[in-house]
Amino acid sequence: MDKDMKLPLIENGSVIDHIDCGMAIKVLRILGLTSGEPEQTVTVLIKAASRKRKWKDIVKVEGKELKPREVNQIALVAPHATINIIRNHTVVKKITPALPDDVKGIVKCTNLSCISNLNEPIEPSFKVECREPVKLRCHYCDRVVEDPGSHLIE
Amino acid sequence: MNFRGRDVVSIREFSRQEIERVLHVARDMLPVAERRKRSNMLDGYVLSTFFYEPSTRTRLSFQSAICRLGGRYIGFADPAVTSMKKGETLADTVKMAEAYSDAMVLRHPHEGAARLAAEFCSKPVINAGDGAGQHPTQTMLDLFTIKEELGSIDGKTVAMVGDLKYGRTVHSLSYALAMFGAELIFVSPRELQMPKDIVESLSEQGAKLKSTTRLDEAVKEADAVYVTRIQKERFPDPNEYQKVAGIYQINAALLKDAPEDLIVMHPLPRVTEISPEVDPTKHALYFKQAFYGVPVRMALLALVLGEVE
After folding, report:
1. Whole-structure pTM value
2. Regarding the domain delimited by B136-290, which CATH topology (the fold level of the hierarchy) does it fall under?
3. Residues B244-254: tens digit of each pLDDT
4. Where are the domains of chain B?
5. Chain B: nearest CA to A17, how far in angstroms?
6. What's CA A26's distance to the chain center, in Å?
């Protein structure tokens, strides 16, 4: 794929492939790469041809290995993504983000009156109501969050 | 079936058999609630009633319920007198209810508050309304009213009238009535119709449903009419509220052609949706419905405190 797309190879870092088309910006936001001083080279390809799904986005981040929390968040916005962890130009780990049945501490409830949005010692907590498109039901107020990728906890 | 130590947060956590058990125990409590019989079943128990929002019927009926069974209550009806004013979290306040009492009744303006309380309190927590969220004991007393007054719930036709869009207690009651095999007629202006996802979920449950904007037609078909207040605070535009406010009113003229044994229910408080001229008629059940809150809450307290199995 890199050969086809002529994307620069990375020495150490992460390649997030098969991102649902148009969701690369949300993935960048999850990785904290849309603000502040860039500390690493980031390559983004939007609307690349995909054999599996017609179109896809790709994000490559030099010098950063994704944390489990980031992988879980990516599962919310790009459920078909695959993640390769690269060390010395070699893929050392392949991760397929999987949305767990319970989503804790990564999404805010959209109901402003929900107790989870107050200063209480709890983590926002959801049950997965629908996997495609992803919809979450709040454990506390029962409200369904339709677009969880837009309501991630910073 | 074991209720001891159980939280009562949402009606959806109760099976039909469990709700029937609550209604059965409530029936046994009736003579005590009416003071035809005395009981010390909950002697020595202390109930916390923490009300962060105004309430007349729910708070007083819980307090009456524990007193009628020989127990006592502590609590507040105005959060201004609590440490919430100093910034204390609900989670910390709930720990005090756990320390000072045997069960807790909570009303709170924020949805999900009772769920949080149940997680932080090892004693039973009963949700007495969390914002626009759940109010399970209201649903139970509504079911009890229908059962007591009509003999059964199964096969009865209940017309739900008014704000069916925002009124979450109407959503919970519809779910419970469908579970009991009642037929439902939704009567509302187009702007306040029952949300589509709830209608779909009720249909999946196998409920028999009908929607109309005509109250006069629904009244002729129904065994019970459940009227709700259209709440001004729900409307972002006051003009939109004015369009639908007062659109439905139960009055003597409307009830002229109603079936003789039709009952009119309302969770109260009412504003203009039921004319006071209905009060002396045999159709008016709303004050008795409010009274039924006492035996139903007595039953729940006795069950979750383990004095009745």
Report:
1. 0.89
2. Rossmann fold (3.40.50)
3. 888 899 999 99
4. 11-134+292-304, 136-290
5. 35
6. 7
